[in-house]
Amino acid sequence: STATASSVPAALQSFLSQPKQLLIGGKWVNSASGKHFDVFDPATDQVIAQAAEGDAADVDRAVKAARAAFDGGPWSKMTASNRGRLIWRVGELIEEHADELAQLETLDNGKPLGVARAADVALAADMFRYMAGWATKIEGNTIPLNVPYAPGGEFHAFTLKEPIGVVGQIIPWNFPLLMAAWKLGPALATGCTIVLKPAEQTPLSAIRLGELIQEAGIPDGVVNIITGFGETAGAAIASHEQIDKVAFTGSTEVGKLIIGAAAGNLKKVTLELGGKSPNVVYDDADLDMAIAGAADAIFFNQGQVCSAGSRLFVQKGIYDDVVAGVSEIAKNLKVGSGFDASTQMGPLVSREQHDRVTRFLKAGADQGAEAVAGGSAIDGPGYFVQPTVLKHATEEMSVVREEIFGPVVAAMPFENDGDLIAQANNSAYGLASGIWTRDISKAHRFAKAVKAGTVWINCYSIFDAALPFGGYKQSGWGREMGHAALENYLQTKSVCISL
Ligand code: ADP
């Protein structure tokens, strides 16, 4: 049964009290098994809703609906211009319901309400508007030919860009609505149809988004939403023979499973995976700005950001000052419910994540890292941990090598450019990076040498629908956002005519 947590805003009560179903072929339906799972408020550890537990049978129904919508439904016949209008409308509806969506996100994920409103919801709306514009701008090329074995032959050759087909999209819990937008935006712009699986920890905003997508007039079967667990619903998407492409955001470990599962029908795969991003402070930086930036790079969203600046490299002469500065900020961060206006850091998303981060903190201490700020969990009922700054961190420690996905930064000193680049690139990951310096050449040298998909110079965590995002090395395959994201959802067909 559903106990209503005290923190639930009145405006959400009616939405939460209705049964949370699956969206298949334009209808909200129960799972074939009839099963549900509990959804928790991470600030109170109370059950706030129950969501339908979809599994392989439901994924199969959703794929059939998506297939029918792709192979001949109104979506497949719609002009690109009209497709763009509907996608734009989704963006508008998100804005119109911004406060409600932000509340839902704070309730389900724990993040501060102001962050949910200004970042998650605003970026999600913007993503749909940005991608709406691309719908009418997907073009092939004309290509001059010079066929060696057909001398004098005259040809007219061109490429067609076609939607890849039915796509499966599996998303995480750290930015539930925004990750849905990153995935759905380009898939809709290119004319694909979709089976989306939100994370089991945070299914609520995707369900509400599904309602808004219907309200916008996106035809039935174009967007299907299956809530459920990774090992069942997620795995069924990754392995389904009738899905042409799978896009996944989550852990590197699960990303590798996706590749294996996708091999059956060789569906195309894009992956946005973990990170252990280096954030570098040189002694010629504006130190106040760099210290505030380094704190924000790790504590934003409770550190549950794949591109978080979790390895902080500080030039030797200023190491103690910068560590002290970031620690001072950490100690003063107000940790609490995301609905409290003074809260700067909310709870972690789940009990499991809370326990995982706590295990890393213990491992760091056991291995000799010193917590200058924080270092432990905060007593419940919610899933809170202290913002933590570790010094005396070394490259062999698990807190430096592995993705913690929590508010824990490991600070390490460096001497000069040469050893910095070696240290920064000494990671299995390569998602993002940051550098703080007033020296433009140093910044550019770093930008060229670092093996990471994003480089932030004198800033961190700047995201824009137009700016591609994705990983080197084990941080992933392909890019999201920007026009680069469209390629993930398009096939190129070459057409050659003899004149
Ligand atoms: P985390 O460990 O931080 O929860 P995951 O990578 O496990 O991150 O989860 C990201 C998404 O992948 C979620 O939607 C989850 O349900 C899904 N998932 C987890 N395991 C699998 C799997 N074996 N196959 C497909 N999807 C999965």
SSE layout and pairings?
Elements: H1 10-17, E1 22-24, E2 27-29, E3 36-41, E4 46-52, H2 56-70, H3 74-77, H4 80-96, H5 98-109, H6 113-134, E5 142-143, E6 155-163, E7 166-170, H7 176-189, E8 193-197, H8 204-216, E9 223-225, H9 230-239, E10 245-249, H10 252-262, E11 268-272, E12 278-281, H11 287-299, E13 311-315, H12 319-332, H13 351-367, E14 370-373, E15 388-391, H14 398-401, E16 408-414, H15 417-424, E17 429-430, E18 432-436, H16 440-449, E19 454-457, E20 472-473, E21 476-477, H17 484-487, E22 490-498
Parallel strand pairs: 7-8, 7-10, 8-9, 10-11, 12-13, 12-18, 13-16, 15-16, 18-19
Antiparallel strand pairs: 1-2, 3-4, 5-6, 6-22, 11-21, 14-15, 17-20
Helix pairs in contact: 2-9, 4-6, 4-8, 5-6, 6-7, 11-12
Bound molecules: adenosine-5'-diphosphate (ADP).
The site of adenosine-5'-diphosphate has 17 residues, from α9 and α10.
GO molecular function: phenylacetaldehyde dehydrogenase (NAD+) activity
Protein name: Phenylacetaldehyde dehydrogenase
Enzyme class: oxidoreductase
Textual characterization of the structure:
By secondary structure, the chain is α/β, with parallel strands linked by helices. Helix content is 39%, strand content 20%. The protein has 17 helices and 22 strands. It has helices spanning 10-17, 56-70, 74-77, 80-96, 98-109, 113-134, 176-189, 204-216, 230-239, 252-262, 287-299, 319-332, 351-367, 398-401, 417-424, 440-449, 484-487, and strands spanning 22-24, 27-29, 36-41, 46-52, 142-143, 155-163, 166-170, 193-197, 223-225, 245-249, 268-272, 278-281, 311-315, 370-373, 388-391, 408-414, 429-430, 432-436, 454-457, 472-473, 476-477, 490-498. Strands 14-15-16-13-12-18-19 form a 7-stranded mixed sheet, sandwiched between helices. The protein has a 6-stranded mixed sheet with strand order 9-8-7-10-11-21, sandwiched between helices. Helix 10 (252-262) links the parallel strand 10 (245-249) and strand 11. Helix 5 packs across helix 6 (113-134). The longest helix has 22 residues, at 113-134. The protein is globular and about 70 Å long. The termini are far apart. The model is unreliable at 1-5 (pLDDT under 50). Residues 28-495 form the Aldehyde dehydrogenase domain. One of its GO terms (molecular function) is phenylacetaldehyde dehydrogenase (NAD+) activity. Its EC number is 1.2.1.39. InterPro entries: Ald_DH/histidinol_DH, Ald_DH_C, Ald_DH_CS_CYS, Ald_DH_CS_GLU, Ald_DH_N, Aldehyde_DH_dom.
